[in-house]
């Protein structure tokens, strides 16, 4: 299953979707929602009634506390069930208690906003969601079965058999559409908020950002050292060789050797300049992403049409990520696509840099472990962005990246 959610599978290939496990997973998700709702309703209502009846004598307080904390356990099952129709797991928003023991665990949970959000979701699930699960199951499967069974008791009701059989093929679509909507609501409510990610994950993200920034700074330093150091020395040597050639007799062996040496150093300077562009292009540092993309288009062996609208300079890390993404994409176009032309588009809207690279090649590009697209995805992810690739067999190929540049 390439698709990560039942909803995306239904939207992408409505007919092919019927031959995948997604309809059965949606059925299991919806049916298990009814089972979980009934069990949770019975248990929690019993605890609530007993707790309220015995709260005066002090016995009911622990029962009511259990009801207050019930959302933690119900939503844990909900996260597990969600994997039936959404393959990306929802992280647990709860932090480990500072000390071992039940008392520390209860105190930590009562102080967390996620606990009360989960209790609210549990209340909505018990009062509405599992009822809707039952209603959808009844409409998608129960009603067609009831209509198909009607001629058994009344032979004259055979037209209802036709209606029931006609409704039955729609059941996978109905169940999956509802399961996708319910899963989206569950993920929206149960996903951790920014403040609930935990110090460890926050530090990992901050550390990754620092590593990317340090790597880009080191690239700029290496490019500057090569440009201002080795390259300038080679240019000076070339000038000295040119002066030496003026002193040598024309067409003499010494003059020809000096000419060969001057030519070799010229080639070395050209290679060094190309290496500097690969490490960190000077145009990107001096003039920004737009000028650097123009240089990329000029050097590309495949004709590239540019459509760039960047009103101002962007943060250095975003410019660097955008440049190397387009550079790698154009390299892939030249090497693997067989395209006759490519297009590069760059826009900034609502503090988001959008880059799109299209080509008219053979298509079939897909991320592979250790491949170029995987490296592009890692670079975009490190910058906090998103990467999308559309490349059906036969083409065309579209690579689109969104990089936040706040």
From TrEMBL:
Keywords: ATP-binding, Kinase, Membrane, Nucleotide-binding, Phosphoprotein, Transferase, Transmembrane, Transmembrane helix, Two-component regulatory system
Domain Signal transduction histidine kinase subgroup 3 dimerisation and phosphoacceptor positions: 218-284
EC number: 2.7.13.3
Putative sensor domain: residues covered: 29-190
UniProt key word Transferase: yes
GO cellular component: membrane
Enzyme class: transferase
Catalysed reactions, as listed in the record: ATP + protein L-histidine = ADP + protein N-phospho-L-histidine
CDD domains: HATPase_UhpB-NarQ-NarX-like (cd16917)
Matches recorded under SUPFAM superfamilies: ATPase domain of HSP90 chaperone/DNA topoisomerase II/histidine kinase
Family annotation (InterPro entries): HATPase_C_sf, Put_sensor_dom, Sensor_HK_TwoCompSys, Sig_transdc_His_kin_sub3_dim/P
Transmembrane segments: 26-49, 55-74, 119-145, 157-178
GO molecular function, one term: protein dimerization activity
Matches recorded under PANTHER family: NITRATE/NITRITE SENSOR PROTEIN NARX-RELATED, NITRATE_NITRITE SENSOR PROTEIN NARQ
Protein name: histidine kinase
Originating organism: Streptomyces sedi
